[in-house]
Amino acid sequence: MSKKSLPRRNFIKKTAVGIAGAAVSVRATSSPLNAASYKRIIGANDRIHIGFLGCGARSQGHQNMVKGSEKDKNLAVVAICDIWKLNREKAAARCKQLFGTDVKQFKYSEEMLNMPELDAVMIATGDFQHAKLLAEVVRAGKDCYCEKPMADDVAEAKLAREAVLSSKQVVQMGSQWLSDPVQIRVRDMIRSGRLGQITKIEQAWNDNNHRWHDPNDPDVAAIREEDTDWNRWLLGKPYRPFDPWAYFEFRIFRDFSGGITSQWMSHAIGLVHFYTGTHIPDSMVANGGIFGWPDIRQNPDTFQALATFRDAKFLYSYCSSYANRFGDYTCIRGK
To answer: Which of 34, 284, 315, 324 lies 20 to 30 A from 14 at CA?
Structure first.
């Protein structure tokens, strides 16, 4: 690593918490096309140029995070990318409103990643697309903040992991709760021994609506197949005819998401790992079904799982119901 890149890394290390855990540290560009012009711009060598990959509702949250840290963290949004034309146009207009500058629009990720001035990418596409896109981003020499879950397929998770570990890029997953001061205090309390030996952690996280399905979804009504790229959206999944419901509500379809497991439970068990320093359960059983919302969904609206951590000697239980939200809690049982 060159001396020129050190200020940028140190800068980001000190300020990463400011964008809700999105630690995007980058190396100084060595592109001959840009180095000379960058030297003439005061502070340009430390400015982090960000692109948004996937421009739906979750990406708007990313845009808000960057806006909250834009000036004091020296960030600049330079590009947006989405295969749906309307999403691109809306995101570009929103970035203009938020940041006061025009951003470059791209339909395909490889086009955006060819920008030599681009330093970091924030991924907010469909769950099943995360791993392959993450690998593509780091191979292009860009740092990355990727929404959870990283993957819904073990082979693709290994693909992304190998790509990251064989690169020099900085990558962080979007489990923002791990940056929450409350959760850090819970972790510190457990590890201090104040609760004694932990034997069981229980989580019940509920809702009472047709989660992830809107019968009147305006995007479903607006999209036209010719305004996007359906084959690209599938990204290697078995072909099926264009389906706008799957396109926007992928979380309820088995081919594209684990539903409760990859959405809420991934956050929940991630906190358990954070508290206890554990990684993968030694055993797990689960059950559930579509009981409250028999609509177009394929993934359960009611779910329960039970896991054991043998070395750490505790039992873990998780459940969600989307037909009744009474009694949400997380209970940590220590001796």
So the answer is: 34
